Structures are given as C-alpha cells and as structure tokens.
Amino acid sequence: MAAVTLSNVVKRFGVYEIIHGANIDIADGEFVVFVGPSGCGKSTLLRMVAGLEDISGGEIAIGGKVMNDVEAAERGIAMVFQSYALYPHMTVEQNLSFGLRMNGNPKADTERRVKRAAEILCIDELMQRRPKQLSGGQRQRVAIGRAIVREPQVFLFDEPLSNLDAELRVQMRVEISRLHKELGVTMIYVTHDQTEAMTLADRIVVLKAGNVEQIGAPLDLYDDPANRFVAGFIGSPKMNFLAAKVVEADNGSATVELVNHAGARLKKPLQTTPPAVGADVVLGVRPEHFFDAGQGDCDIAVKADVAEHLGSVSYVYADAGGTELIIEREASRHRASGDDLVVSIKAGKALLFDTKGARIR
Amino acid sequence: MRHQNATAYRFLAPYLLIFSVFWVWPIISSFLISFQATRTVPWRWAPTFNWGRLIGDPAFFNALKNTLLILVIQVPVMISLAIVMAVLLNSPLLKARGLYRFAFFAPVVVGEVAYSAVFRLMFNLNFGIINKLLNSVGLPSIDWFSNVTPAMALIMIAVTWRWAGYNAIILLAGLQSIPDDVYEAATLDRVSKVKQFFYITLPLLKPIIVFCAVLSIIGTMQLFTEPFLITERGGPGGGTETLGLLLYRQGFRSLNFGYASAVAYTMAGLAIAITLVQLWLTKEPK
Questions:
Q1: Which residue of chain B is at minimal alpha-carbon distance from A72?
Q2: What is the ipTM score, two decimals?
Q3: Using an 8 Å Cβ cutoff, are A205 and A212 in contact?
Q4: Residue B10 lies in a domain
C-alpha cells in the first residue's frame, strides 16, 4: 500500500499541452476516481502514474518515492485496462500467473496467489478457459485477478466497466467496491461515468480539458461544487441552469431575478462580495430541489413536455421560457405532456454562478 | 428463389464456361494424361507407364531431393528473417517506415529475368561483387555456378532475397493487429521485451507465420525461375534441378506430357501433404 502524490504534473504531446499542472494527493488505501468528459486527460494522467506515458513536467511519487524516471514495471502498480488486455493465447490460469512465472517467482507462491485471486473473484471454474471463451464480465474479473496476483501497492483502473452492459456494470461496481474494502489498497479509477465515480470513490477528481476542476468527497462535490462545470457534471440527471440578473445587492446577499420569469426573484445569502447590480448570473437548481408552488422562496411557471417514470420518482422535462428544465417529482404526481406546472425554488438549495462559470458563494 | 438462382447462373455462365475450359478441364485432362504413354503416336492408355517410371527415375529423385533441401533450409531461414524484418519495421523507433516497406517489397515486383541477370553478375567468379567482398575479408573466391553446394546456396539466397520482404509485409500486418495494451499489460507484469517477443508476439503471430509458411512451401515446390535462369537450367549437371524444372524439361523439351503430368501431380500432392502436416502440427487447441 502506498500514497500517490502528483505535483504540478504536465503532459505534452509535441507542442500540445494535454495536462496543465495537476496537483493531487492520494492517501494510502484511498479510492480516488478521476472523472471527466472524453478528452479531458484522465486516462493520460493514469497512464503517467502507471509509467506508460512519460511525464513532461512535475513529479509523480508513489509511497514517497519520485517515480518520474522509474520504469513502469518497477513502480509497484497493477493496471486493469478498458479492453481487459488479456493474453488471448493463454488460459485464465496462465493469464494470472504469467507475470509471476516470467519473473521466476517460486511456484508455490505463484499458485497461492493465483488461487487466492480466483477465490476472491469467484473464477475458480474458469481457470482452464481462454479469454475468447469468457463473457465480458468474466474477462473483466480475470483482468482484475491479474492485477491482484501482483499484490501491488497501487491499483489503477482505466474505464474497466465501459464495455459491459448496464446490469453487469452495476454488479462489477459493487464487486470492485468490495474488493477495495477487502484489500485496503490504494486504488485510482478512471471513468467518464459520474455515477460510477459517485458510488465508488472516497474522493473524486473532476477533470476538464487537462485541468483539475475540483477534488472532494462525492457528496461534497454534489452539494458544494466549485464551479458550473462540476455542478453540471456531477449528478444525474444533471443540474438545471437558469439565466438570471442581479437586481439588488447588499453586504451578505444578492437578489436575483430570473431572466425569462419577470418578477421571479430570489434573495441568495452570500459569504463573499456580491456581484454588482445588473450583472448577469446563472442560477443552478438540482432536479430534486424544485418544490410545490408556494413552498419555496420563488415560484416559476413551466410547461411539462415529457415525463420519465422510474417507479419511485418521475422526471418531468419542462420548458421554462425557452430553457429546458428537469424536475424530479414523486412518482404519483407526475404531469402529462403539455400540462402547466408551477414549481418553487428555495434560495438555500440554489447555487449561483457568474457567467464564466465560477461559483459565487 | 429457383428463378433468381437461374438468373444468377446465366450471368455467371461466361465466366464458368471459360473457367471450365481453361482451368477445370486441364486439371482433369492432365490427370488423365499422366496415365498415358505420350511418346507414341497416337497416345495410348498405359496406367503404370509414367507412374512406374517415376518411382524408379533417378532424375525425379534428384529433383525431389533438391526441392526438399531448398524447402527445408530456405523456408525456415526466410520466415525467420521475415519475422525479424517485420518486428524492425513495426518498431516505433524506425524513421521513414514507408520507404523501408517499399524497399522490402520491391524485389517481388522486379522482373525475374532482370533480377536473375543481376544475381549472375553479382556472383560471377571473376568480377562479381560477392567474391570481391569475400576476397576483401581474406576469403577465397567461390565458384558459385560450377559446384553443386554453392549453386544450391545461391538459389536459396536468391529466393530468400526475393520473398523475405514480401513475407515480412504480411507478418507486419499480423504484428499490427496485436493490441498495444497486451504489451503494456506485459510490461506492467515486469516481462522483458525479449520474453514478450517469445511468449506474446510469436504465439499471437502463429497463424500468420503458418500462412506464410504454407505460401512458401507451395512456392518452393513449384520453384522454377531461379534454377532455370540463375544456375542455367538446374546446373551444374542437374545439381540444382527442381521438380518444376524437371516438369518443364519433360513436358516442353522432350514433349513427354504424360510423365510431366505425373510429376506435376506429385508436386501438388507433396505440397498438399506437407501443408496438411504443418497445419496439423500447429493446430490451436480447442
């Protein structure tokens, strides 16, 4: 087990800078998820930790030792690849033991490690099969097993569940979570799926275009995002954003009026200097933070368009003066298409952002 | 459905007709000819005449021995060389990869007569560059065309030069189909590059290697150009005569089509048999 520290890590491909000085501290035994949209640099960052990509600038340390010039094989890490990367010509047992055999590990110890990994992942029955004879989920287990037998200091997962169907993804997610508890090893997990990030992580690192946008516990990111990007990326369905204008500002609060809803005003308490009167701002409201008319601080009228009924709740897609809103309702109170609906927003549940996306706290 | 099929066959008919006349019929006809004595007029049916001669013909066994010798030595050497060339071509460190790929493939498109003439000049006893090079490192000149062993070596060198690059290009396609992440996984498993080559690259390349070997075996069984043009019709004294050359000599010099047909069928049978054995030996376990 080991802590992982990334200090001002930069990655360049030719003249293009892909990672712009990432600073991330990962504690010993922690489960950290790098999440972000495609092309944000999360996999590149993981591959730099693994040693599969050179580090253009900054430092990466594992267990307190700087790894910039240490070969991938010597970093004490194991990686599970998106495509599983199993050796197609070897049986499951050979796949698990290959690395150990090639390095002259004692046979008895190799057998012990393979047996243990097989037991943990319930793949004992599959040991003599080849990868092509396995399902996607089974292949993924073997890939994880191959990582386990190495007994690494750090596990790296590069979008390991993205090739699985929805049901299997949930199942494997639970198993990876259980595995982390059982092994207690530091794990770094890359995904573009914020649900995976929320359910698995001790802490989430949100990346966008090579920048670390925010690092924090899942619910901290959900409740207290640093900016509009994080607010919109974390949470499913995503947060609603409504254009607004500051109409009053005093020391400790700002009153905003929704642009497409004349008279719909909300007084938002602030810890910092409020924006100037007349400034454009954006109000962020999560789907579950729309209340029945009159129960919040400000009511707005919307027209229901489509309703998705998920059983326990329904999501109503509604038009609010040209802006599409997603409103969570109790299942029994869903609206049909075309219905007029009045919902209410509470100042304490709404977040304020400036037009550049920075949070106004 | 039947009507549709009939229409399709009507469209195919011109091709099928030409295919039958110039492809299927000669195959059947040559098989029948192999059972006839063709040095009499008219040809007469004599089932054991050619096949019986084949079993006891020293010229046939000489040609068979030469062909198999070339096959056993040249094919493995060429495939090994092609694998090395393919791995080098696939290296990310290599610059101007396109140029090398063209250079490796170029011998295949060079005219056979031109390349044979160049080889004859290069290996000439008195002024060939190969003997000059040998002399420059203190080795004596070799008379490549008058002695059997050097002549056989020359044939093997020439065939290898001509076809190694071609096989390397096929193997390169196989190498490029092996996903990078398999090597990355092996690297993280602390497996050295050399072990990666022997334990990952070679096993995963096996189907392509077998394919190249089968092509080469078939090609070598039919070997004709090099012994005909470079060592002058299988010289010295039949020392490099191959089955292909024997077939030509019997069929088109002696006009003994019956015997030539028997030789042709023997060549085809041997090629099939060797290929089947090889496929069986390299069969993937289920």
A1: B188
A2: 0.85
A3: yes
A4: no
